[in-house]
Amino acid sequence: MTAADLRVARIARRQVDKFEERRRELAGAALQTLSELGYARTSLREIAQNSSFSHGVLHYYFRDKADLITYCVQQYKTECVRRYDRIVTDSETAGRLAEDFGAGLAETMAEDATLHRLWYDLRSQALFEESFRADVLEIDATLQAMIWRIVTRYAELAGAEAVPDEATTYAMFDGLFQQQLLHHLAGEAKARERLARAAVQLLELTVPATRS
Predict the structure, then answer these.
(1) Are the beta carbons of 115 and 52 closer than 8 angstroms?
(2) Can you tell me whether residue 159 is helix, strand or coil?
(3) Does pTM surpass 0.70?
(4) What residues contact residue 143 under an 8 Å CB cut-off, 6+ apart?
(5) Residue 151: closest CA among 102, 82, 79
(6) Which residues contact 16 (CB under 8 A, 6 or more apart)?
(7) Which of the ends of the chain has fewer CB neighbours closer than 10 A, N or C?
(8) pLDDT tens, 92-126?
């Protein structure tokens, strides 16, 4: 590759990086409006009205509302995965991992409730709108793998093996989280505490008769 080719390649990479940086900036500005109103009640025009960006700018960086929403959720869920990966890395006993995991779930449910609500809204929409399905399945697979890393590390620390398979385990934790999120959104003060406690109990059921 010639020096001229290398310069062209560097310029192209910078342009791609700037485009992606701008998309992240726009997604961050749009996320609050999306999470408050949900999929059905939000348009690009409404998002523009609640941010410093014009409707035309949003349309330049995102094909449509579906593209923007899936990008926003993907960004947020990626950050969630990193948070739980730190728990896997830092925990030295099964008991500590279980406590940190339960506390982490409860904290994110309470502090980011509207964002999680947006995720469940998007996942429900994917049952009806084919354009969402590939992205939703990709995000879901990432979350499933995250939960499985927690469970398998817990089993390793406890000196045992997980009983259910990966998909079943994820379904159980996801159902628990969604249930308590609904209670939290309904104003139940103890939903956070219940989620933290139930997450520990579910880990113990998944890897039975062991606790360090």
Answers:
(1) no
(2) coil
(3) yes
(4) 77, 80, 81, 170, 174
(5) 102
(6) none
(7) N
(8) 999 999 999 999 999 999 998 988 988 898 899 89
